[in-house]
Amino acid sequence: xxxxxxALVDRFLxxxxxxxxxxxxxxxxxxxxxxxxSETVGSLGSASTDDLSRLGExxxxxxxxxxxxxxxxxxxxxxxxxxxxxxxxxPSEALPRPRFERPLPRILDADEVKRMFEAxxxxxxxxxxxxxxxxxxxxxxxxxGLRATELVSLPRGAVRANQPFLVVRGKGSKExxxxxxxxxxxxxxxxxxxSAGGTIWLFPSGKAHLSRVRLFQIVRAMAADAxxxxxxxxxxxxxxxxxxxxxxxxxxLRVLQSLLGHADIATTQxxxxxxxxxxxxxxxxxxxxxxxxx
Length: 294
Known about the structure:
A two-stranded antiparallel sheet has the order 1-2. A hairpin with a 2-residue loop joins strand 3 and strand 4. It has two domains: 92 residues, Tyrosine recombinase, N-terminal domain (DNA polymerase, domain 1, Orthogonal Bundle), CATH 1.10.150.130; 122 residues, Intergrase catalytic core (hpI Integrase, Chain A). Helix 1 packs antiparallel against helix 2, helix 6 runs antiparallel to helix 8 and helix 6 crosses helix 10. It is mainly alpha-helical and 294 residues long.
């Protein structure tokens, strides 16, 4: 990448951090995608539509999702250049627009989740510290739909008596309110009562908090304990189950978007495909014309 292009990219990423609140990981991904594009087109700042059209041929072997992400990064970059008066034209129309289907999330049905809770509760009945902790983890994963990173990085005082919600810092360091059930409150309080203090983390491990990898291992072990194939279960699968089962119960998509911390409603809408039968049932039962006779 030329020095002039690097300066433009730096200005673009500064804008993304300041105005869009993009995280370090998002900014690094943008920089990487722009670096890769410059290897093909040369100077990004002066690239023409013909230059960008070569990217489609160059990206022929990439997955559609990767092509879509790289194209989106370049479109946003050129929109920034035009908005800031650094270019008069926007050549990004020449970029490929792949069509692809989002993969449907893997989920557990309600009976399988029930089995996981029954097995976890049986183990926790012994008051063994690890079993009590694992039950608290499961309650928060399925009961509040937390991401793995959000869960393991909770501070020790995150769950408070008579406070039916958590303040969670999610992607892009954005905060949101997440409901916490009385069951989860009780499970967490039980864990706090028997766990050692002197740490800032709700789920400590050594001098830091529990890692995402360790959480993944714990959840899979709990699945195996309930007779469910471990490869079918992960913290994210439990988050998907939280969302799908709420939708099945009649939750509004906008409410679900807020609970999950999705920036775009399109991300939340994938759950309508997972639970399409329930949506058809709702239309037939609730639409004003459903009960109208001829």
